[in-house]
């Protein structure tokens, strides 16, 4: 498991490099190898075409990241992980944040119920 889903408004597509953002956030998560299993990581971005921000009078934009984790990590580990991840996101958008109205957010969702997984990617990293 961990899964990172980044939703971003379509008005950002031409102003930032989303594939580079995906690389950066993936690298950030993988730098915590004792917390994040490499074979379970899934990172993706979803462009939002239909959205409305605030009162709709400006060309506002947003990026919202949701990190989904299975249970079992300490509160300290989750905090360090999310602090680093959010810093990476903020750094990626720092120049753009100075030029336009932009909201950045990160949410952590920890599964409390069992998850169902079937994944042989882990075996590649256990050699």
From TrEMBL:
Gene3D superfamilies: Macrophage Migration Inhibitory Factor
Residues in coiled coil: none
Entry keyword annotation includes Isomerase: yes
Entries under Pfam families matching the protein: CHMI
Gene Ontology MF terms in the entry: 5-carboxymethyl-2-hydroxymuconate delta-isomerase activity
EC identifiers of the protein: 5.3.3.10
Catalytic EC class: isomerase
Keywords assigned: Isomerase
Top-level lineage group: Bacteria
Descriptive protein name: 5-carboxymethyl-2-hydroxymuconate isomerase
Species: Oceanobacillus polygoni
């Amino acid at each position: 498991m961990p899964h990172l889903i980044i939703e971003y408004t379509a008005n950002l597509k031409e102003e930032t490099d989303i594939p580079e953002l995906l690389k950066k956030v993936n690298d950030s998560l993988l730098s915590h190898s004792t917390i994040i299993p490499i074979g379970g990581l899934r990172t993706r971005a979803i462009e939002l075409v239909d959205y409305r921000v605030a009162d709709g009078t400006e060309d506002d934009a947003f990026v919202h990241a949701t990190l989904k984790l299975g249970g079992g990590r300490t509160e300290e580990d989750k905090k360090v992980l999310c602090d680093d991840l959010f810093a990476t996101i903020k750094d990626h958008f720092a120049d753009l944040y100075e030029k336009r109205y932009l909201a950045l957010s990160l949410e952590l969702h920890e599964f409390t119920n069992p998850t169902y997984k079937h994944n042989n990617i882990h075996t590649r990293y256990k050699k």
